[in-house]
Structure to design on (338 residues):
């Protein structure tokens, strides 16, 4: 007797962190299409009691309410939603905001590369179509461009732009292998996610989307998060370089980085030493070359390393090769579910 194999229908879960979005959240939920099977509303200790508001006014059977006992920040709220969705067997986790900036109608576009197996993580890119950029406030435009450049160094995804875009979709198997408890809980979490994904060698793709701004209120203050972003990018860059080029593997790029850095530092120190301690004595051609040649050689080696690093971004999706159950998974959280 022939056995028929029943194809598994991927379970799509939507995670929506909620903090003072009661004016928009019901409209966002109504716009989530039938391709999504679960909707997790994360009440991040919201002063407006978003969880109670949704529970009282929403009859959608897909909705689950997760209440954080304390305010964990937007990243912490998303991680709480991931843990809940993983426990209930979701296959793909989509994250959107509850303020209406991220159209739920685009979910099918975000999950498409995950369903066909070409990517492990998809994120929005508001800069893809330059005609849509005009709707973005100038300060946000400049800030996102600067953060995108810094993120390329720290995450290793040189072909990814708009790293702070929070419209994302991730393979559940990949999310289960991430150290959720160590991912930044505040505004840096989207960028920190990219760094963590790179340590898994996950494939990340950009999904073009329009920049939309209405009457929603942004709680992000550049002056408050500058230090967090600067420290986070610096830390992640150092970790990524050590993990990828010295701990996991030792390649020609490792030698280029090490030798290039030593030559640049040595030449610069020698040049300053000669200039500071012999300001009145003109330097000979040989002295100048002893300072300039190591700097030039070091710069060439560092540029060669940079080209190598740009071409080293993951190209083959990893989720199909990951075990179903990770060795260590953190599914605990300070939450209550209803």
């Amino acid at each position: 007797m022939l056995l028929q194999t029943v194809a598994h229908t991927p379970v799509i879960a939507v995670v929506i962190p909620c903090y003072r979005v009661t004016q928009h959240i019901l409209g966002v939920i109504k716009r989530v299409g039938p391709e999504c099977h679960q909707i997790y509303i994360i009440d991040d200790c919201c002063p407006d009691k978003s969880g109670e508001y949704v529970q009282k006014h929403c009859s959608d059977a897909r909705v689950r309410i997760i209440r954080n006992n304390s305010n964990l920040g937007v990243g912490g709220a998303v991680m709480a939603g991931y843990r809940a969705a993983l426990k209930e067997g979701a296959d793909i986790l989509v994250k959107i905001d509850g303020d209406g900036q991220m159209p739920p109608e685009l979910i099918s576009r975000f999950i498409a590369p995950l369903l066909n197996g070409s990517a492990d993580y998809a994120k929005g890119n508001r800069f893809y179509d330059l005609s849509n950029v005009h709707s973005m406030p100038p300060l946000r435009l400049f800030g996102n461009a600067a953060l995108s450049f810094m993120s390329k160094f720290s995450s290793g995804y040189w072909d990814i732009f708009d790293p702070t875009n929070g419209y994302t979709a991730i393979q559940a198997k990949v999310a289960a292998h991430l150290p959720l408890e160590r991912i930044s809980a505040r505004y840096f979490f989207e960028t920190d996610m990219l760094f963590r994904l790179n340590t898994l060698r996950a494939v990340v793709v950009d999904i073009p989307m329009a920049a939309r701004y209405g009457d929603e209120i942004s709680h992000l203050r550049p002056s408050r998060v500058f230090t967090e972003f600067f420290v986070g990018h610096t830390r992640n860059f150092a970790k990524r370089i050590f993990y990828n080029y010295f701990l996991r593997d030792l390649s020609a790029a490792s030698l280029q980085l090490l030798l290039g850095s030593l030559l640049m530092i040595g030449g610069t120190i020698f040049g300053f030493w000669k200039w500071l301690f012999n300001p009145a004595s003109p330097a000979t051609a040989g002295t100048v070359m002893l300072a300039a040649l190591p700097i030039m050689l070091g710069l060439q080696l560092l540029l060669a390393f940079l080209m190598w690093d740009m071409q080293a971004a993951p190209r083959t999706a990893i989720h199909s090769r990951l075990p179903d159950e990770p060795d260590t998974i953190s599914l605990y959280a300070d939450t209550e579910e209803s």
